[in-house]
Specification:
135 residues; mainly alpha; 0% strand; flat
Amino acid sequence: PLRTVVAWRGRAEWDQVMVGLYCGDSRLQQDALDRVSAWKSRYGPKMPLAVDCTAELIRCKVLDSSGRLKSHELILSYGLALVRFVNLITERKQKMVSLPLRQLAREVDIPVWVVDLRHELTHGKLPRLALCRKG
Protein backbone atom coordinates (compact mmCIF):
# COMPACT_ATOMS: atom_id res chain seq x y z
CA PRO A 1 0.00 0.00 0.00
CA LEU A 2 1.08 3.57 -0.74
CA ARG A 3 2.16 5.46 2.38
CA THR A 4 1.80 9.20 2.87
CA VAL A 5 3.96 11.16 5.28
CA VAL A 6 1.99 13.64 7.37
CA ALA A 7 2.89 16.01 10.20
CA TRP A 8 0.63 14.44 12.83
CA ARG A 9 1.49 11.20 14.65
CA GLY A 10 -1.68 9.38 13.78
CA ARG A 11 -5.43 9.46 13.57
CA ALA A 12 -5.79 9.96 17.34
CA GLU A 13 -3.67 13.14 17.32
CA TRP A 14 -5.55 14.44 14.26
CA ASP A 15 -8.92 13.79 15.93
CA GLN A 16 -7.78 15.39 19.20
CA VAL A 17 -6.72 18.57 17.39
CA MET A 18 -9.92 18.79 15.35
CA VAL A 19 -12.04 18.35 18.48
CA GLY A 20 -9.92 20.99 20.24
CA LEU A 21 -10.28 23.50 17.41
CA TYR A 22 -14.07 23.22 17.29
CA CYS A 23 -14.85 22.76 21.00
CA GLY A 24 -15.41 26.42 21.92
CA ASP A 25 -13.15 26.27 25.01
CA SER A 26 -10.41 28.89 24.48
CA ARG A 27 -7.81 26.96 26.46
CA LEU A 28 -8.36 23.74 24.52
CA GLN A 29 -8.47 25.69 21.27
CA GLN A 30 -5.11 27.27 22.11
CA ASP A 31 -3.65 23.82 22.80
CA ALA A 32 -4.93 22.65 19.40
CA LEU A 33 -3.51 25.77 17.73
CA ASP A 34 -0.12 25.09 19.32
CA ARG A 35 -0.23 21.57 17.89
CA VAL A 36 -1.13 22.91 14.42
CA SER A 37 1.85 25.28 14.68
CA ALA A 38 4.08 22.28 15.38
CA TRP A 39 2.61 20.52 12.36
CA LYS A 40 3.33 23.57 10.21
CA SER A 41 6.95 23.61 11.34
CA ARG A 42 7.27 19.95 10.33
CA TYR A 43 5.20 20.03 7.17
CA GLY A 44 5.83 23.55 5.84
CA PRO A 45 4.14 24.43 2.57
CA LYS A 46 2.62 20.93 2.28
CA MET A 47 0.25 21.70 5.16
CA PRO A 48 -3.33 21.12 3.97
CA LEU A 49 -5.01 24.46 3.21
CA ALA A 50 -8.14 23.53 5.09
CA VAL A 51 -6.15 22.92 8.28
CA ASP A 52 -4.12 26.11 7.87
CA CYS A 53 -7.15 28.31 7.16
CA THR A 54 -9.22 26.76 9.94
CA ALA A 55 -6.42 27.31 12.44
CA GLU A 56 -6.06 30.97 11.45
CA LEU A 57 -9.78 31.61 11.80
CA ILE A 58 -9.88 29.85 15.19
CA ARG A 59 -6.80 31.83 16.28
CA CYS A 60 -8.79 35.02 15.61
CA LYS A 61 -11.66 33.78 17.75
CA VAL A 62 -9.27 32.90 20.60
CA LEU A 63 -7.64 36.34 20.40
CA ASP A 64 -11.08 37.95 20.29
CA SER A 65 -12.27 36.14 23.40
CA SER A 66 -9.07 37.01 25.28
CA GLY A 67 -9.93 40.71 25.28
CA ARG A 68 -6.29 41.59 24.62
CA LEU A 69 -6.80 43.18 21.21
CA LYS A 70 -8.52 46.40 20.27
CA SER A 71 -11.38 46.40 17.80
CA HIS A 72 -9.21 47.65 14.93
CA GLU A 73 -6.60 44.94 15.60
CA LEU A 74 -9.30 42.26 15.58
CA ILE A 75 -10.70 43.55 12.29
CA LEU A 76 -7.23 43.26 10.76
CA SER A 77 -6.71 39.77 12.20
CA TYR A 78 -10.09 38.46 11.06
CA GLY A 79 -9.63 40.26 7.77
CA LEU A 80 -6.32 38.64 6.95
CA ALA A 81 -7.63 35.20 7.91
CA LEU A 82 -10.75 35.65 5.75
CA VAL A 83 -8.82 37.01 2.76
CA ARG A 84 -6.35 34.11 2.96
CA PHE A 85 -9.19 31.62 3.32
CA VAL A 86 -11.07 32.80 0.22
CA ASN A 87 -7.89 33.26 -1.84
CA LEU A 88 -6.31 29.94 -0.93
CA ILE A 89 -9.47 27.87 -1.26
CA THR A 90 -10.38 29.34 -4.66
CA GLU A 91 -6.79 29.40 -5.91
CA ARG A 92 -6.80 25.68 -6.71
CA LYS A 93 -9.71 26.09 -9.10
CA GLN A 94 -8.23 29.30 -10.56
CA LYS A 95 -5.19 27.36 -11.79
CA MET A 96 -7.45 25.15 -13.86
CA VAL A 97 -9.39 27.91 -15.59
CA SER A 98 -9.62 31.69 -15.30
CA LEU A 99 -13.02 32.45 -13.75
CA PRO A 100 -14.40 35.30 -11.63
CA LEU A 101 -13.77 34.87 -7.90
CA ARG A 102 -17.51 34.88 -7.13
CA GLN A 103 -18.07 31.93 -9.46
CA LEU A 104 -15.08 30.00 -8.07
CA ALA A 105 -16.27 30.60 -4.52
CA ARG A 106 -19.77 29.45 -5.37
CA GLU A 107 -18.33 26.21 -6.76
CA VAL A 108 -16.67 25.46 -3.40
CA ASP A 109 -19.72 26.59 -1.37
CA ILE A 110 -18.31 29.87 -0.06
CA PRO A 111 -21.25 32.28 0.32
CA VAL A 112 -21.20 35.32 -1.97
CA TRP A 113 -21.38 37.69 1.03
CA VAL A 114 -18.05 36.24 2.27
CA VAL A 115 -16.50 36.96 -1.14
CA ASP A 116 -17.90 40.50 -0.93
CA LEU A 117 -16.44 40.85 2.56
CA ARG A 118 -13.08 39.69 1.23
CA HIS A 119 -13.36 42.29 -1.54
CA GLU A 120 -14.06 45.07 0.98
CA LEU A 121 -11.14 43.94 3.15
CA THR A 122 -8.82 43.92 0.15
CA HIS A 123 -9.99 46.90 -1.88
CA GLY A 124 -12.39 49.00 0.19
CA LYS A 125 -12.68 50.46 3.63
CA LEU A 126 -12.46 48.09 6.56
CA PRO A 127 -15.82 46.60 7.59
CA ARG A 128 -17.27 46.55 11.09
CA LEU A 129 -15.93 44.01 13.58
CA ALA A 130 -19.34 42.33 13.83
CA LEU A 131 -19.25 41.52 10.10
CA CYS A 132 -15.70 40.16 10.37
CA ARG A 133 -16.78 37.96 13.27
CA LYS A 134 -19.71 36.67 11.24
CA GLY A 135 -17.38 35.91 8.34
